[in-house]
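Page 42, continued from yesterday. The earlier attempt failed because a stray header line got pasted into the input along with the sequence. Redoing it now with the clean sequence only.
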Amino acid sequence: MKSFIAKLTVITLAIVLVGWLVFAMFVPEYYLPVFPFLLAFFYLVTIGIHAYQLNVAKKDIGKFARSNMLTTFIKLMMYSIIAVVYIAIDRENAVAFVIVLMALYLIFTFFEVSSLTRITKSKK
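This time it went through. Structure tokens are written below.
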């Protein structure tokens, strides 16, 4: 788990650096003040879900598959609700928000899935 958090922190800091470069130099008019909070939210949710899924995988690898599908659905619904609420509040920046949200979702999900895949392969 410590290795996962360390790698996730490095990825998050890389996203902060890339985000700063993109929003400061290329498209400053699309900067979202909510970006740091969104990034922190993804970071914390990813750690929480990963810890939960590790506990399930340790107990029963068969139950892990069902649990993984359920947590993925819940996570997707949670992010969708955040998107709908933000778009309802700030329609002017809706496109930029959706692009940032999708990019963060893809990056964090890819990292989480690849980490879980390595762990479950070693458990078999």
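Notes: The chain has one domain: 2-123.
Reminder to self: strip header lines before submitting.
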